[in-house]
Every structure is written in C-alpha cells, then in structure tokens.
C-alpha cells in the first residue's frame, strides 16, 4: 500500500512544474511525502 502511495506521489510531483515551487515549498512538499 505504501509503495502505491509513493508511486502516485512521485507521479504527481512530475506533473507539477518545479518552477511553481520555491525551495521552501519543495522542502515542505517532500517532508509531507515522507510523513505520509
């Protein structure tokens, strides 16, 4: 179940253009993914 979540999270991360994420937002986003 966790692997599916990680796969989906990674997929979504690729969809979201990185230029819309500043460094802090990206750190928080990654932190949320790790907590999930």
TrEMBL record:
Name this polypeptide is given: YcxB family protein
Species assigned in the record: Romboutsia maritimum
Organism classification: Bacteria, Bacillati, Bacillota, Clostridia, Peptostreptococcales
């Amino acid at each position: 179940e966790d692997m599916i979540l990680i796969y989906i999270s990674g997929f979504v991360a690729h969809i979201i253009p990185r230029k819309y994420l500043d460094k802090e937002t990206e750190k928080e986003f990654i932190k949320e993914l790790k907590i999930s």
